[in-house]
Amino acid sequence: MSEKIGVGIHGAGWVADEHLNAYMANPHCEVVAVCSRKEESARRAAEQCGAANATIYTDYEQLLADDRLQLLSICTPSHLHVQEGVAAAQAGKHFVMEKPMALDLDGVYALRDAVREAGVKTVVGFVLHWCPSLINTRRLLQAGAIGNIFYVETDYWHGVDDWYGGWDWAITKAEGGSSFLFGGCHAIDAARWLTGLDIVEVAAYGGGWDKRYEYPPTVVGIVKYSNGAIGKISSSVDIVAPYQFNIDILGDEGAIRDNKLWSRPLAPASSDWAEFPAILPDSGDVEHHPFEGEINHIVDCILNDVESDVNIEDAVNTHEASLAMDMSAEQGGATIKLPFRD
Predict the structure, then answer these.
(1) Bond before 132 cis per omega within 30 degrees
(2) Cis peptide before 100, with omega less than 30 degrees from 0?
(3) Are 324 and 233 in contact, with CB atoms under 8 Å apart?
């Protein structure tokens, strides 16, 4: 490996700018290439982040053939992720992939199997792993602050009705996928990551008011976790209110609500919730998201030859659960058991 990791970006939209800025801030990285279908978009992104000397590509195969490239961020539309991720793995490139990693089960397993065979390092873009408030929550749970977990509830509520014009793709099954694939998978991933529990059973209903969507924009599911705990996870992309990401976790020694803690082991004489001030996951604006933490993480994984806890392999259960939500809602609340495949 060269002194610096050669980095490329594929896709030059809104979120790509944040990836580029994070790479530019990491001393172990050099942005060597930016790729987009439109040359002017790739050039704008490179110049805006200060990587004016990066090679500009409009052909993905040419980007993957660049020998300088070791690490890639895939920031293209969701329906392209599987084919581009498989190609990156087969080319021996480590990669960060924006969520969702796939829009159907066949895509999920094709990507997983390609990464397994290639042995490359990967991260799926569940960037809330680096949100300060969620980091606090995870460490409190690991320390046994609320004892044994028996209930976990998370919600992703992000009304996108004001995006139409530039975000028409979001309402379609072909590109947006579903409410959970578009954004609610963040809530599923957060429930799993915070607790260390997989989802093994789902039953869901779909609803919502906005008929412009090709799928139910609001979906709520009852879930069972691998330790026997139960919970609720919801996703609404037609909420008429500010962005909201709710977290409620109940244990036999206390509870956590967002950044508030009630704990018999840690504070047995408390008369009210203890609050831990920290940056919350309270905005859908990508400029608010902790991309530097995500990029620093994949770089550390490469440098130290360790696997990420938010890699393609781990993200399979999150995507299985997302797709199970959709299947159950289509079947009027039928129970769906996971995993679908080994």
Answers:
(1) no
(2) yes
(3) no
Could you tell me if 55 and 150 lie in one domain? Answer: no
189: containing domain: 129-282+318-337
DSSP at 310:
T
Three-state SS for 260? strand
Q: What is the pLDDT of residues 138-180, one digit of tens each?
A: 999 999 999 999 999 999 999 876 554 557 888 999 999 999 9
Phi and psi at residue 55, in whole multiples of 5°?
Answer: -70, 135
| CATH label of the domain that carries residue 88 | 3.40.50.720
Rounded CA separation 142/131 (Å): 17
Q: What is the DSSP string of 218-254?
A: EEEEEEEETTS-EEEEEEESS-SSS-EEEEEEEETTE
Torsions phi, psi of 251, nearest 5? -130, 170
Q: CA-to-CA distance for 249 and 258, rounded, in angstroms? A: 9
Give mean pLDDT, residues 126-145: 98
pTM to 2 decimals?
Answer: 0.96
In the block, tokens 């409620």 appear at: 248
